[in-house]
Amino acid sequence: MIDVIKLQKSFGKNEVLKGIDITVNKGDIVCVIGPSGSGKSTFLRCLNCMEDPTGGQIIFNGVDIADMSVDINIHRRKIGMVFQQFNLFNNKTVIQNIMLAPVHVGLSDLRRAKRFNALLPITNLFRRKGNKREKIEIKTDAAGIKADAYENAMRLLRRIDLEEKADKYPSTLSGGQKQRVAIVRALAMNPEVILFDEPTSALDPEMVGEVLELMKQLAQEGMTLVFVTLEMGFAREVGTRVCFMDEGIIMEENTPEAFFSNPQCPRAVEFLSKVL
Questions:
Q1: 150-161 exposure pattern, b = at least 16 Cβ within 10 A, e = fewer
Q2: 50-64 pLDDT, tens per residue?
Q3: pTM of the model
Q4: 52 and 45 Cβ atoms separated by less than 8 Å
């Protein structure tokens, strides 16, 4: 699904990523761990080009999304992102937060289809017989797009037992509730992969469990997940692969069982001795 090839990222003279190579296959649960300042969050943000890579390639479903000529917004529809600080819109209700992206994309596609169909008789005049295009079939309207998004958002809220919070604002939620809403907001776009940037680091300890439980459910359902995490127990239990990063490179990559029981890299041995 994702092939990262010699990924580099610099901020001025500060080289943060120094040539990352990794493949993420469908159904993988990749846990990226390492000390602060090792480049973990920068790596994750580069995966959906929230940070533009300085060098290298990120091949997502056969397309190099690091290529500046590619419309990254089209590909971001299939790459969900969950942040440390939730990043919910405080001026919108919970359900409006979840509906926002599906409605925006749906209405944008609807406008594009209508514009294409309106111009089609003219554009077809300049095409040879046999190359003429057909109208795009439009099966819904703006009201239908919003109704579908609402129904899906409510289904997702029922999944996390927060249906009664649909019309509340994020400021009224606990940290764990905010993060669960942020996760289902990512799910609302039916992504092929979800990226998690230390999703429990901003939570009080008693709230961590409810968020980790939801992420475990996603893993059990076969969702492709890439985590930057400080939760070593979660990485050991749920991950299919662990990548240890330091100094802008992946120093070791292995199964959780092998990595935690017998790390090969001296820096990984030192790191685990401090966090376990």
A1: bebbeebbeebe
A2: 999 999 999 999 999
A3: 0.91
A4: no
